[in-house]
Amino acid sequence: MKWQGYLAGVVLTAFFGIVVILALNLSPAHARGDVGGAFLPVIIAACGIVLSLTYLVQIWSNRDSAKGAARRRGLIYLGLFGLTIALIKWVPLALGLAAASLLGVLLMDGPERWLRAGTVAATVFVTTWFGFGWLLELPLP
Which of 7, 42, 64, 89 is least surrounded by Cβ atoms within 10 Å, i.e. has the fewest? Predict the structure, then answer.
């Protein structure tokens, strides 16, 4: 099982490295300014590289404590956001991300899940709608 963790970490690090290279190679018309078209992909890819390198260090130092339930939840989260992307033509992005976030938080254990889920969903909706749609004036699907 450990080799699969190494493989996943290396593949994800390479993927995010390619995203950084592609975003940095966008034409100046797309990458103009501090928050041009290439700004968000570079930030997301940089965060992805940091997270995948952190995962590789955890695997290497035998700190990967994920049990079967954690891996099942990861697949469920991946399915939730995959479904959100698949339904983007019919469900507005802010609403879809908020709903996926709400369901994702409800999958976690702990007290007051509904309160946390509602708070996270509202925060995601407000961030997406007002942050990207209104403040940055990006067209939201």
Answer: 89
| pLDDT tens, position by position, 1-15 | 577 778 888 888 898
Report DSSP letters for 78-106, one per residue. Answer: HHHHHHHHHTTTTS-HHHHHHHHHHHHHH
Residue type at 10?
Answer: V
Pairwise CA distance, residues 62 & 51, whole Å: 16
The span from the CA of 116 to the CA of 124, in Å, is 12
* Tokens standing for residue 83: 């479904």
Interatomic CA distance for residues 63 and 141, integer angstroms: 40
Tokens representing residue 138 in the block: 């990006």
For residue range 88-125, what is the model confidence (pLDDT) as tens digits? 788 887 888 888 888 888 888 778 889 999 999 999 99
How far the first Cα of the chain sits from its last, in Å, is 39
| Mean predicted lDDT score pLDDT of the chain | 78
Gap between the Cα atoms of 113 and 43, Å rounded: 30
